[in-house]
Inverse folding.
């Protein structure tokens, strides 16, 4: 018996079956570094310097940087935090810090480990440690002479202490010695970083007549561990006196709206004088050129200025008063000045007559000039039938442009004539 099986087929085995990417197109990430050598240059020992190198995934699949190793502790990776994943085409900055602990040359290497096609990428590192200069303290001033001070009065001065060295300084003790001298504004212990300063005040209050001396002593771990500020002063029973020269300050004639100055000077005699205030009893006079409070030592002088700014015409007078610790406590001088009328300015314009028939007159236009002419506006109230015009309504210190137009009997107006630019009116 013959059995026929039809319509049924059976294939055993398979060919050409693939999984994932087509053969020859496997995707992978590639980690590329913008630099493989980094030189930090010179860095002071004990300080740090950071530099960055750009890392880019130039492949077609993501890359994960899993770890980093550095061959020496004087270099450190500060960014990015690991592990870090970069998508295809993505970049990040690799930040490396160099911290030398001494003078000399340092070298090392940084190796990044990842799942990129190149599983490790290295950067060669080098830098130079520079010696650090020791901390050093400097005083300004280096000595202080208070001059002559009346017994019962005090005089204060400011001083500054600066660390001009390359490392921090710790001040362990600050002391002041000498009869009549005191100090404020600074206490120990105190640490000053390189370049940092501190200010303090020293006051001299003589207990009796005669010379006095003392000093401020500063003890620290600086290269100059014992620093001294010499102090000196003289106590006197003589009361200081303040004089002003000249006794009448004449500012002369000044135009209203303008200002003029006159100079004077103050002098101290007998003892140092501290001026606390200066004023006038007329606001058109103001005091300048001296910063208050101001101390003038006995036998010395200080300049000042008076500014006169009249607001009306005519003679003006006032009294200048200085208040101080002198005897008497106020010192005066007379002030005089005369306000004169502010100058007036006119602009005289002339032009050639129009050759057109039927001309009735002319209009005059003005514009403010800066670097060019601004918008023009008519300045004549009625039609000018001549060829002359005087503009007397101008502002001092301003520049103008001028132009004219012709108007006929049908009230038709021409365009602007030639324009005269930058007509300057003097300042008051």
């Amino acid at each position: 018996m013959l059995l026929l099986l039809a319509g049924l087929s059976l294939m055993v085995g398979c060919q050409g079956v693939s999984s994932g990417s087509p053969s020859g197109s496997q995707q992978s990430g590639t980690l590329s570094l913008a630099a493989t050598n980094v030189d930090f240059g010179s860095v002071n020992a004990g300080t740090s310097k950071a530099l960055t190198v750009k890392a880019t995934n130039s492949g077609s699949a993501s890359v994960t940087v899993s770890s980093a190793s550095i061959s020496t502790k004087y270099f450190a990776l500060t960014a990015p935090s690991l592990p870090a994943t970069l998508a295809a085409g993505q970049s990040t900055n690799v930040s490396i810090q160099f911290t030398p602990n001494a003078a000399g040359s340092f070298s090392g290497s940084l190796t990044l480990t990842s799942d990129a096609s190149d599983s490790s990428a290295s950067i060669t590192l080098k830098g130079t440690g520079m010696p650090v200069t020791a901390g050093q303290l400097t005083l300004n001033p280096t000595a202080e002479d208070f001059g002559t001070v009346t017994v019962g009065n005090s005089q204060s001065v400011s001083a500054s202490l600066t660390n001009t060295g390359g490392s921090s300084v710790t001040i362990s003790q600050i002391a002041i010695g000498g009869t009549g001298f005191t100090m404020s504004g600074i206490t120990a212990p105190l640490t000053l970083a390189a370049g940092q300063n501190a200010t303090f005040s020293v006051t001299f209050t003589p207990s009796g007549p005669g010379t006095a001396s003392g000093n401020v002593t500063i003890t620290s771990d600086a290269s100059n561990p014992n620093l001294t500020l010499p102090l000196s002063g003289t106590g006197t029973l003589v009361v200081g006196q303040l004089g002003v020269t000249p006794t009448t300050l004449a500012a002369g004639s000044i135009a209203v709206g303008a200002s003029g100055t006159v100079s004077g000077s103050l002098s101290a005699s007998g003892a140092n004088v501290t001026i606390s205030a200066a004023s006038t009893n007329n606001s058109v006079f103001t005091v300048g050129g001296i910063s208050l409070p101001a101390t003038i030592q006995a036998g010395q002088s200080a300049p000042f200025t008076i500014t006169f700014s009249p607001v009306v015409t005519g003679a003006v007078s006032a009294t200048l008063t200085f208040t101080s610790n002198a005897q008497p406590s106020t010192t005066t001088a007379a002030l005089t000045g005369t306000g004169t009328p502010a100058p007036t300015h006119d602009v005289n314009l002339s032009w050639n007559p129009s050759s057109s028939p039927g001309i009735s007159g002319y209009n005059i236009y003005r514009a403010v000039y800066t670097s060019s002419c601004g918008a023009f506006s008519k300045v004549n109230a009625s039609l000018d039938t001549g060829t002359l015009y005087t503009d007397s309504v101008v502002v001092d210190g301003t520049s103008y442009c001028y132009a004219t137009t012709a108007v006929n009997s049908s009230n038709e107006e021409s365009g602007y004539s030639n324009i005269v630019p930058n007509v300057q009116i003097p300042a008051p």
Notes: Residues 1-24 have pLDDT under 50 and may be disordered. The domain at 347-424 is CATH 2.60.40.10 (Immunoglobulin-like). The radius of gyration is 44 Å. DSSP finds no helices and 33 strands in the chain.
